[in-house]
Amino acid sequence: MGGLIDLNVTEEQEEETTPSSGSGSLSPCDSSSSASAFGVSGSSSRSSSSGVCLELWHACAGPLISLPKRGSLVLYFPQGHLEQAPDFSAAIYGLPPHVFCRILDVKLHAETATDEVYAQVSLLPESEDIERKVREGVIDVDGGEEDYEVLKRTNTPHMFCKTLTASDTSTHGGFSVPRRAAEDCFPPLDYTQPRPSQELLARDLHGLEWRFRHIYRGQPRRHLLTTGWSAFVNKKKLVSGDAVLFLRGDDGKLRLGVRRASQIEGASAFSSHYNQNMNHNNFAEVAHAISTNSAFNIYYNPK
């Protein structure tokens, strides 16, 4: 049983029907109205229905992120969608302030260009009768248990997260890994050798394989990723202040993800993927889906 080694706070020196798409605001609902806000914008190491490793996605999203369950009831706020674009108003579409919806599906994704994680949530509007029954406490708003909830309860992967330094992102340098993190997450080295080393193979959120040379050298000796690291930094366009996560599941396979500095600092909750959806035509599709009780998609960016 392992756990997350956060090197930023520890010792670092060591479908048949195609739903419409949109963005908006969503809150879990209970019999007394909405609960906490849910901003919306799209092995033993299990994968989501979209093929993304569940453990890695949640590690990149952060420990405070909570996703709605399939089958649960939520409140969708159209105005939250429209507030992301100027001069938009839900009133011109004749929509109510909120819409009771049931979660049909939650698919986990990652931006191709930035590796930032997001979720595509499929919603189906419910009738006013359902809303009344929810407020009366007749209907349970919770859905079934999700795979990621099972993972949290039964499996804690070996994992570490480190904020990159200027040396880590140098084109002539390598990635320095404190010994405790390397020994917990990476396969064991043979320390009887003069220069212990091994090749590491890790998959990112998109399933791409990355190969790194892991070596233990220097005075004093330290763990470094050398060959292959600069190519990874350049391809991902990583800079000092970004963070890298390595994760080893019970199957022994390595996975890695990134957290951008802008994501860590809590910048805009909407990346380019979501901003591309901010237009009248897109929201008109969502409005039509609501008016016809048809399914539609919204996108949640966990920032």
TrEMBL record:
It comes from Brassica cretica (Mustard). CDD domains: B3_DNA. The lineage of its organism: Eukaryota, Viridiplantae, Streptophyta, Embryophyta, Tracheophyta. Pfam families: B3. GO terms for cellular component: nucleus. Keywords: Auxin signaling pathway, DNA-binding, Nucleus, Transcription, Transcription regulation. Residues 160-262 form the TF-B3 domain. It is found in: Nucleus. GO terms for biological process: auxin-activated signaling pathway; regulation of DNA-templated transcription. SMART domains: B3. Residues 1-32 are annotated as: Disordered. This is TF-B3 domain-containing protein. Belongs to the ARF family. It comes from the Eukaryota. Residues 20-32 have a biased composition (Low complexity). One of its GO terms (molecular function) is DNA binding.
